# Entry
Amino acid sequence: MREAMFESLYRQHHHELLGFLDRQLGSRDQAADLCHDAYLRLLDAPVRRVLDNPRAYLFRIARNLLIDHRRRQHPELIAIDALEPVLVCPRVCPETDACQRQCVHQLTRTLGALPARLRQALIWHRLEGLTQREIGQRLGVSERMAGRYIAQAMTRCQDELEALDGESRH
# Structure
C-alpha cells in the first residue's frame, strides 16, 4: 500500500519537483540529488496518518532540503528562516474559525500598509519561494538588503498579530 502511494507520487510529481529544484538551484545535477533526497525522506517518514495533500508534503520536504542546502553553501547570508517568527495566530480558542478569520484580516491590513518593497519582498519570499538574491535582483538592491526587507516585513506582521492577541485578552 505505502509503496504504491510512493510510486504514484513519484510518477505524478517527479518532473515538477525536479523542475522546481532546478529553477531554485540553477543546477540540474544538484536538483536531481535534492529530488532524490526528498523522495527518500518521504519514504522514511513515519506513517502516522493518511496525508491530506501528499504533493504539498513532498514539496515541503524538498523546500526544507533546499534551505539546508543553501545554509551549507552560503553561511554568510542572513539566515531569514532561522530568524523569522512563525506567522501564525498566537491564540488558541474555541472559536478557531473566527480567530483565524480575524488573524487573516489583520495580516491583510498589515500587508497593505507595508511599504511596497517590504510587501513585495515578503510575498516573493514566502509565497513564491524566491531567494534573497533573486528578490534583490528584482528590486535592484543587494542580497543583504532584500533579507532586511523580508525580516522587517515579518517583524511587522508578527507584531500586529501579537497586538491582536493582546487586545483579545483585555
User: Anything to note?
Assistant: The radius of gyration is 19 Å. DSSP finds eight helices and no strands in the chain. Residues 82-86 have pLDDT under 50 and may be disordered. The chain has two domains: 2-73, 80-169.
